[in-house]
Design brief:
By secondary structure, this protein is of the alpha+beta class. It has helices spanning 3-22, 52-60, and strands spanning 36-37, 48-49, 71-79, 83-91, 98-110, 115-127.
Length: 142
């Protein structure tokens, strides 16, 4: 191949690779529309604190001892100076229908109080008896 065409071809190949990498299923965790909204008014006052991860675990974390391969993972997936999105994932639940639950929690920092406030929350689930048991849904498990 002629040298003058190598760089443009390489650029096109890299661009396509980056686009494809950006379209993976882990980005589903970011999409607010894929979560069933939770009523924040019901947890008013409890969604305030110093650390969004600690707030998420306090509100939705497992409080019981589980005798299985249960796992609970929490991570900040998007962060700006005064906003954070936290994903709390619980897998291998001791339930014959629900395989896992995933919560998407949006926090905003209130400079006047110096505290993080839960602004939006949503929930998904993964079902054992589903055609696609690794997929996340807002539909009830069969």
């Amino acid at each position: 191949m002629d040298r003058k065409y190598r760089l443009p071809v390489l650029g096109v190949g890299l661009t396509i690779s980056l686009i494809l990498m950006g379209c993976n299923s882990s980005d589903d965790a970011l999409e607010k529309s894929r979560y069933q909204p939770l009523n924040i008014a019901e947890i008013k006052g409890k969604g305030i604190g110093d650390d969004p991860k600690a707030i998420a675990l306090d509100l939705f974390g497992n409080k019981k001892t589980v005798e299985s391969d249960f796992t609970e993972e929490i991570k900040v997936i998007e962060q700006q100076a005064f906003e954070k999105i936290v994903i709390l994932t619980q897998m291998n639940l001791p339930d014959d229908k629900i395989r896992g639950k995933r919560y998407r929690l949006e926090f905003k920092f209130d400079q006047s109080t110096g505290k993080w406030n839960l602004k939006e929350a949503g929930r998904q689930q993964s079902c054992y008896r589903s055609d696609k048991p690794t997929d996340w849904t807002i539909e009830p498990c069969p």
